[in-house]
Design brief:
This protein is of the alpha/beta class. 33% of the residues lie in helices and 23% in strands.
């Protein structure tokens, strides 16, 4: 029988001070990919203080025994109904030191939005659910994973052992439900030239010139009418050159391409090749090659499907709009979709500030996230079907 006060009982156990303290401590722990343990220890410690059992799941691909892997909490009866997934790793810090500070209820610092705020909100919702005494009718798993900022080794390991029909990924979406998801293609471009004395460049072939021409043409082609719309191309890094007073004979660049859900790999490769052919037409001696490093296709989830009724109800109970949108970056969501789970990406913070020196999250939104995640747990795992 449904207890109409059950969700209110859970919400009454949400502790703003506990949530803030946990998040601030987690953000203060520098935890780039492959060195996540300091931040993971903060969340494990919070669970241990409230007597909530958890498991540490090794990630086999990792060779360093100090990198312990995922943290997994399972509650309620089998089978699982809801899986919540968040990652604790961050991109590497780009400057000396790591300053985090709280000002006007806004927390600044690396990993605040992406995505320690989401992790803290989920753990707070879990603790409040346990403290409320509300009995779960269906299974719940909350998992904090490693490696998302690289190639998702933590999520891959988790998905091999844990499955639920619904998966929530706590990436920063300003608490908007994201059901569409962009695809992500990463590649390495290489240019090879011929050395010559810098004073006589006409006797050589400058690989840097060729690379710059290729990159500029890629940016042009990606926005042309012949290319499917919505390509987001970002030249991320360029390196190369030679010794002093020598024409550069090598150059490499890393390129990120984010594409709307319906775009497959082939149009991306066609775009790269069209730009390459343009450069070769003007510089036949150029040697230009590309190497795919990573590809994760995008996807679209039907917002009307029955499995999402519970999550939509959670938004309504929190008086948050159910206005499905698209997540324009990469996340662990495709891993769980490939296993047959229905993924929803939703978390506190703004994607546009993630990975930057200006990264921050509004604490009011983190508190709202804890309330929303508690409502999701209730709707999926407590309320009658």
């Amino acid at each position: 029988m449904n207890d109409p006060t059950a969700l209110e009982r859970v919400w009454s156990r949400l502790d703003q001070d506990r949530l803030s303290s946990m998040l601030l401590e987690a953000v203060d722990q520098y935890s780039p990919t492959y060195a996540e343990e300091p931040a993971m220890g903060v969340f494990a410690g919070a669970l241990a203080r409230y007597g909530i059992a958890f498991q540490r799941q090794p990630v086999i691909e990792r060779q360093d025994s100090a990198s312990r892997g995922n943290l997994v909490i399972s509650l309620g009866p089998e089978p699982l109904e809801l899986l919540w997934v968040g990652h604790v790793d961050t991109v590497p810090y780009s400057e000396d030191g790591q300053d985090s500070w709280l000002e006007d209820d806004v927390l600044h610092g690396l990993g605040t939005a992406d995505m320690k705020a989401g992790c803290a909100a989920a753990i707070e919702a879990l603790i409040a659910t346990v403290e409320s005494g509300v009995e779960l009718q269906r299974g719940l798993c909350v998992a904090l994973v490693v490696g998302e900022e690289e190639y998702g080794d933590g999520a891959q390991t988790l998905a091999d052992t844990v499955w639920a029909p619904l998966t929530v990924i706590g990436e920063p979406t300003s608490l908007k439900p994201n059901l569409d998801h962009y695809g992500y293609y990463e590649c390495r471009l290489a240019a090879r030239g011929t050395q010559a004395h810098a004073a006589l460049p006409e006797f050589g072939s400058n690989a840097i010139h060729d690379m710059l021409a290729w990159l500029m043409k890629i940016l042009e082609v990606s926005g042309s009418p012949s290319t499917p719309g919505g390509f987001v191309v970002n030249p991320r890094e360029i390196t190369g050159g030679a010794g002093a007073f020598v024409v550069a004979d090598s150059c490499e660049a890393l390129l990120d391409v984010h594409v709307p859900p319906q775009i497959e790999r082939r149009p991306i490769e066609a775009m790269l090749d069209e730009a390459r052919q343009f450069v070769l037409a003007g510089q036949p001696s150029a040697a230009l090659t590309s190497e795919e490093l990573f590809w994760a296709p995008g996807f679209s989830v039907d917002p009307e499907q029955a499995l999402l009724v519970a999550l939509r109800g959670a938004f309504e109970s929190c008086e948050l709009p159910w206005e499905p949108a698209a997540f324009r970056s990469h996340s662990d969501a495709p891993v769980f979709l490939s296993r047959g789970s229905v993924p929803l990406v939703c978390g506190p913070g703004r994607l546009e500030v993630a990975h930057t020196r200006h990264e921050h999250v509004e604490m009011a939104q983190v508190r709202d996230a804890a309330r929303l995640y508690a409502a999701m747990i209730h709707a999926a795992c407590v309320a009658p079907r």
